[in-house]
Design goal:
By secondary structure, the protein is mostly helical. The chain has helices at about 5-10, 15-35, 40-75, 80-90, 90-105. Helix 3 (about 40-75) crosses helix 4 and helix 4 packs across helix 5 (about 90-105).
């Protein structure tokens, strides 16, 4: 089915090739959706995305402040993408959950 050279070539490209293909497919799908949607739908989608980006940025600011303040009492809240997403999606209950995890773990 496959020659030995072909298999070695596929093994050699294991890291970079699929990532490029996935990136090209995602960009193509986004462009296709933009061509199909009308202007008001695009504005609504971009507005929602901007709200979530702002919430994520503010979540990282809060995580940084929690890490600094928690350092004085010996509780360190990790600043990573998952903590930021939990805080951005859940808000104040997410902050309480992160504090509880930091204290209990």
């Amino acid at each position: 089915m496959f020659s030995r050279d072909r298999i070695e070539w596929i093994i050699h490209l294991k890291g970079a090739f699929p990532v490029k293909v996935i990136g090209i497919v995602v960009v193509g799908l986004v462009l296709l959706l933009l061509m199909v949607m009308d202007k008001t739908q695009i504005q609504k989608v971009l507005e929602r995305l901007s709200v979530y980006w702002f919430r994520l940025a503010f979540a990282f600011l809060v995580l940084f402040a929690m890490n600094i303040a928690g350092g004085f009492i010996g509780v360190y809240v990790p600043v990573n993408i998952m903590s930021g997403l939990v805080l951005a999606v859940l808000g104040i209950p997410g902050m309480a959950a992160l504090c509880a995890f930091a204290i209990l773990l």
